[in-house]
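thought: fold this chain, then report.
action: predict
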Amino acid sequence: METGVGLDASLRLSYADEAQLSQEAARLGYTSIWTPEGTGQDSFQLCALRWGASREVVAEGLATGIAVSPVMYRTPVAFAMSGGTVSDITGGRFILGIGSGGAQNPSSHRALGLPDFSTLSLMRDYLVTTRALLAGETIEYEGEVLTLRGLKLGIDPAPHTPVYLGALGPQMLRLAGELADGAALNWCSPEQIAWSRKRMAEGAAKSGREVGSVKVAEYIRVCVDDDVDVARRAYTKAIMGYALGASVPTERERGLGYRAHFERMGFAEPLLELDRMRERGASRDELVEAFPSELLQHVGYYGRADGAAAAFARLSKGLDTAIVRVVAARRGIDSVLAVMHACKPT
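observation:
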């Protein structure tokens, strides 16, 4: 198993911080640096920056990856151009992760002026076309959502660029097994990782692929501080948006995305109780205090630094790449470094 480190926009890092942390990751023995993407800084450029900085410590530079970029923000051609360029710059040390983002929500379609479509069909179309473009092929493709004709990536030779699919539910996991180079998981217990691998194996069997040929990576959130309650609050704020969503979900919405993911792991009732608190007007701080510690420790770690490595090792079982996704207990780079040192590879 390889160990990467994940840094995101919530850490409010300067570009100088990014460079310093990339070099420290290389010194500590991490093999890769990852970032998610939203509508903020361009993650492809961040990956190139981090790789370049890490070369001050490791000659070939650390591998870099995006896990994941929501597909509705870019076309397959744009993904291939940006991903292929970073792969070319880094000598093939880049992994492109794509995901559905909020594609299952009608509000996301309206925000981008897009029609309704099947999320699964959308991701199938993106996987097929983006991987083909990155492989240097000329595209002739007509899918349920996307059609591309006569397009080819203008980077010759086309650099090797694995494409990972952000996947939680059974259908998306099967699609990853069928078509992707890897799956990017999130907020999983070891049991959920094993469950996910079984769904991926079903997809791999459909396309005649070897099960082990599709890699599995996952962000594992870690927050450390000598004051355990400070770490707990910061970590809880990181998970709440995923587990609860922006508003109390409808019955249909409970069966989608992250809410369905957490309910599959057995946390339907605790989340429903938090929903009832929201309906009664509970504040964010009240929800943080009421959030069940069992759920928090089921999928990540908060606490003192000396307990982080063992928890990370337990949560990493079944992964090809385990990514320490840093949650800072306090503002500033010191909290980030504390997590990186606590979970450094051995």
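thought: worth noting. The mean pLDDT is 95.
final: tokens above.
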